[in-house]
Amino acid sequence: MNIARVRGSAAVLGVAVALCATACSTGKSSTAAASSGAPVTGKITLTYLQKQGDQQYFIDEADGAKAKAAQLGIGLTVVNLGDDANQTVSDVQAAVAQKSSGLIIVPPDPAVGPQVVQLAKDAGIPLLTSDDQVCTNGPDPASCATANLVPRVGFSGTQMGTDVGKKAAELFVKAGWNAADTRTISAWKQDVTVCTDRVKAAKTSFAAGAGAAVQDIDVATDNTPTGAQDKVAATITANPGVKHWVLWGCNDENVQGGVTALQNAGVSADNVIGVGLGAYLACKDWGSSQPTGMKAALYISGKNIGALAVQTMYDKLKNGKAFPQEADAPTTMVDATTWQSAGVKCS
C-alpha cells in the first residue's frame, strides 16, 4: 500500500468535508429538498463527470445527456475526468461548490468511489453512476455488498459478455479451427469491475458454445487501443505456435488493439476472430475495403445511457422518484453487413 497516497487522499477528503461544511450550509433550497427526498421546485442543474471523455462512447454519452437535458429544460455541465482519480475528487468538489442539484459520475478508478460518495452525502446531493459501479464503503465494487453499491445506469456486464462469448463461439465453430492451435485472448483493465464481469461472462459463454476446450490467455491492459496493442503483441511473441486467434475484451479499444497487433505480426485476417464491444471502432474496419480480423461487435449506444442517466436523475429531483438499483439499456450484435442499419456511429 502507498501510505503517502492514502494520507494524501485523507487530506483531500478532509478539505472537501470542510469545504462542504461552509458551502453546503448556505446551499439552495433545491439541495435540501433533494437530500430529504422531496421534489425540487427550483432550477435543476446537473454535473456529469466522465472518465476518458475523449473516447467515442463517452462523447456519445455526453451528447445523449445534453440532448435529454435540453428536452427537460434543465442545466447540465459535462466534465472530462480523463484517467486521473485525484482530479476526480477536485472536480466533484467543484461541482459541490457550484451547487449542482445532482451528480452523475463514471469514475476513472473505482477506488475513489467512497470519497465521491462522502462528498455527495455531506453536500446533500443525490449521486448516480453510469457505466461503472461504485461502492459506498470500499475501493472494490466486486467485493461490495449490493446494498452498498451506488445506483447505476448502464449495460449489464454479464449479459454483454455472454453475447460476445456466444458470438465468438459461433464464429469459431463456423471457421472449423483446431482447438489445439487456437488461443483466445481476454483483454481488459483488470481493476474495473464491469470489465471483469464482461470478460468473465464471455469466457463462460464461449466455453459453453465452442464445442472444444480452447486455452485462454488473460491480457491486462489500460483499455486503450495502443495499450492493448502493446500487450497483445507481447502475447503473440510468447506463443509462436498459435495459428488462430479469438479476441474479446472490455471494449472495442481492446479488441481493435489486439487485431492491429496480430495484423502487424503477419497473422492473416482469416485466422483472427475479433468480437468487439461498442462497435464504434469496429465499424471503421468494416467501412474500408481491407480484410479485417474484427468480425463482429456488440453495439452499445452511449447516447442511450447518457439520456437515461439524466432522465433518472431528473425523476429523482423533480418527482421524488427513487433511483432503481440498476437500470440497463438494450444492446445489438452487429457485423460488416448490419452496422449501418443499426445506427452505429464510427469514431
TrEMBL record:
Any one biological process term the GO annotation gives: L-arabinose transmembrane transport
Q: Which family does it belong to?
A: Belongs to the bacterial solute-binding protein 2 family.
Q: Where is the Periplasmic binding protein domain?
A: 51-321
Query: Is the keyword Ribosomal protein assigned to this protein?
Result: no
Q: Out of the domains of life, which is the source?
A: Bacteria
Q: Which UniProt keywords apply?
A: Signal
Major site of localization recorded for this protein? other
Q: Which residues form the signal peptide?
A: 1-23
| Gene Ontology molecular functions | carbohydrate binding
Annotated protein name in UniProt: Periplasmic binding protein/LacI transcriptional regulator
Q: Does the keyword Cytoplasm apply?
A: no
Return the Gene3D superfamilies for the record.
Answer: 3.40.50.2300
List the GO cellular component terms: outer membrane-bounded periplasmic space
Recorded hits in Pfam families, A to Z, give: Peripla_BP_4
- Compartmental location: Cell envelope
